[in-house]
Amino acid sequence: MYIEQVKNSRFNIWLYLPIPVGFIGLMVLNFIGTQGMDVEKMMHNMIEQLGTNVTFVLMVGPLSFACLFLLFWVKFVHGQSIRSLTTSRPKVDWKRIFFSFGLCSTITIVMILLAYLATPENYVYNFKPGPFFTFLFLGMILIPLQTSFEEYLFRGYMMQGIGVVTNSRLIPLLITSILFGLMHAANPEVAKIGPLIMIYYIGTGFFLGILTLMDEGLELSLGFHAANNLVGALLLTADWTAFQTHSILKDVSEPSAGFDIVLPVFIVFPILLYIFARKYKWKNWKQKLTGKLLLVEKID
Fold this sequence. Notes:
Blueprint: H1 13-16, H2 18-34, H3 39-50, H4 52-77, H5 82-86, H6 94-118, E1 123-125, H7 129-166, H8 170-183, H9 188-193, H10 198-215, H11 219-235, E2 236-238, E3 249-251, H12 259-280, H13 285-290
Parallel strand pairs: 2-3
Antiparallel strand pairs: 1-3
């Protein structure tokens, strides 16, 4: 019933279109603008001139404010409650958010620890108390807003809007997952590792989209995405990543497209789906992922 919450007379396609069209336009302009540029060198120059934490704020801050703008647009332009953009439940289930956050945090910590123990020569100790705790403060505020914006935009606003227009669940799952992956096409990781890393980004989009449709809400994807970005940024950084931070460790190895893509997309994500499915007793997978929308009598 998550998508169906906006299937009513208040849904106005002309009020809906400016957000996705505008964002996709910005994605295209950003991708075109970075072609032929050494994004990694540009990031290094910014960090040398402004510092790592200031550069982080400039990179993440706009998306954090975009989250607040999107929620304002939904609430006051569409007249839709933030609750209905977040979940089909009577109220937001914070236990789901914290469970997903904790599970993803644990997996991230274990994977980084195992990688460090397996190849310690690929990592250097990067911890500096002052800059680290400054970043911790900034990250705890900005990263959840940044990841929430992406979830509310792709798995919330666009999932519901495309679903209502197409009367489908599969079509919005496909479109939002692919667009989510393409949003990262201008990241320095793509230039460094190659286009195969898009499998990871698009695969992550599908994983988060399946979470949303099967659980009938954003809670699990909100918790997972926030933990993935925040905990990862606190523990590990590299010169070729979009997030260059005052983390505890720094990866100094030469990246390659291989096991780092296969492990999360084809092993970790299916295991997580199994865990969530067992815990929350998911049923009717075919209907929830590929079926038509259901009729609803009353919508908040």
